[in-house]
Specification:
Blueprint lengths: L1 E9 L6 H14 L4 E7 L6 H11 L4 E5 L6 H11 L2 E6 L11 H9 L5 E5 L7 H18 L12 E4 H4 L12 H7 L5 E5 L15 H19 L4 H32 L10 H28 L19
Parallel strand pairs: 1-2, 1-4, 2-3, 5-7
Antiparallel strand pairs: 4-6, 5-6
Length: about 325
Amino acid sequence: MTDISVVIPLYNEEESLPELHAWLTRVLTAGGYSYELIFVDDGSTDGSLQVLRGLAAADTRHVRVASFRRNYGKSPALNTGFGMARGNVVITMDADLQDSPDEIPGLYDMITRQGYDLVSGYKKKRYDPLSKTLPTKLFNATARKVSGIHNLHDFNCGLKAYRAEVVKHIEVYGDMHRYIPYLAKLAGFNRIGEKVVHHQARKYGTTKFGLDRFVNGYLDLLTLWFTGTFGKKPMHLFGLLGSLMFLLGLAAVIAVGAIKLYNMHTGHSYILVTDSPYFYISLVLMLLGSQLFLAGFVGELVARNSPKRNEYQIKETIDIKEK
């Protein structure tokens, strides 16, 4: 089996590809590894595909290429590369030369000798403007809090190493490439480490990601937290919240009616129940509570009918048969 599969998603990186291929070849050959380079072209509109065709023709033993008909995003590109990978260790890196191939031997060692399931790069010293680094720090702090993976400083670093088993048991979709360590943790791979890596200034082209990635990133994090926590048991969230809101509204309605009856009995002035604003607040609480409860019930029906409702990550099976 191949030692290392390097998965490289790319979009409009024709200038950097020859240099990246030469650099990877030099490092991996010097290390004596058997390897494959998997380039996934995410619908590039420049000459990237033509360059990849040339690299594949010149290096048929190591270069493999997949090309999308249009731009789908980094997550689908990674997921495709993971499906193609045949190596014991899978390395992911960006194609813009900001990730250094010289880090690969160290990452490989942490997986094979130190026993990590996943190792994420940490670009401690970055060559990015403050408009990117400050939101990134806030984003990573939130991701650490929500995911419970407190030893990672940079969830979104493109340079990562995985045990082959990890990439075969996770599905990267949407924009979830930012949270692959969290996906791995939810799949039961808890040995997640970090390695400080060198960050290089961009040599060619411009970044393909805008500031909207921070907004989308938080929404994706909430989605991942919810599906990871309540995906198979939605009633535990919606049913609980709905029941609490309904009971609170019911108690408030009873209180409004009881206050009126007490005032009538004691001869104090009183107003109609329907003239009290608290009556309508109570009704709203009861309605919202009922809707949340029903949402949980519908979610349970959907989960029950899902073909993957009883799919779980099995680490190993031991079956000792009687002689």
